[in-house]
Amino acid sequence: MIVCVCHNVSDSRIRRSIDAGAESFADLRQELQIGSTCGKCAGCARQILREHQPAIILSPGVQRLLNGLQLGQGAVAA
Ligand code: FES
Predict the structure, then answer these.
(1) Is 70's pLDDT higher than 80?
(2) Cα of 51 to ligand 1 centre, how many Å?
(3) What is the pLDDT, as a whole number, of residue 59?
(4) What's the mean pLDDT in 13-37?
(5) Higher pLDDT residue, 14 or 77?
(6) Nearest CA residue ID for atom 2, ligand 1
(7) HSE on the CB side for 31, CA within 13 Å?
(8) Which end of the chain is less congested by CB atoms within 10 angstroms, N or C?
(9) Can you tell me which atom of ligand 1 is nearest the CA of 39?
(10) Best residue for ligand 1 mutational test, from 2, 8, 32, 37 (most atoms within 8 Å of Cβ)
(11) Which fold has domain 2-70?
(12) Which InterPro entries does the entry mention (predicted)?
């Protein structure tokens, strides 16, 4: 599917850029010129970016710290 008509950029091309290291819309814009003409593709490109970015994997210690903060327990000394 073509996402950016102005620059003929497809969703698969955007995904390949993300796989190759693009981390933000600015990265995609710089590499593919998406959103740089009429801008109508920006929302769709951002959605693909959100859906295709790899999930952040936290270590168990960081997960426990974040869980404690969410419960209002604060940080626990190691
Ligand atoms: S559709 Fe992407 S800049 Fe126009």
Answers:
(1) no
(2) 20
(3) 80
(4) 95
(5) 14
(6) 4
(7) 17
(8) C
(9) 3
(10) 37
(11) Arc Repressor Mutant, subunit A (1.10.10)
(12) BFD-associated_ferredoxin, BFD-like_2Fe2S-bd_dom, BFD-like_2Fe2S-bd_dom_sf
In the predicted model, what is the mean pLDDT of the chain?
Answer: 87
Residue whose tokens read 């599917």: 1
Rounded to whole angstroms, the maximal C-alpha distance in the chain is 54
Amino acid at 11: D
Taking only Cα atoms into account, the Rg of the chain, rounded to an integer number of angstroms, comes to 18
What is the distance in A from the centroid of ligand 1 to the CA of 25?
A: 13
Confidence of residue 24 (pLDDT cuts 50, 70, 90): very high
Of residues 53 and 43, which shows the higher confidence score? Answer: 43
Question: What residue's CA is closest to ligand 1, atom 4?
Answer: 38
Cβ-based neighbour number of residue 14 at 10 Å: 23
| Distance from the alpha carbon of residue 56 to the mean position of ligand 1, in angstroms | 30
pTM: 0.72
Ligand 1 pocket (Cβ < 6 Å) reads 4-7, 34-41
Tell me, what amino acid is at 27? D
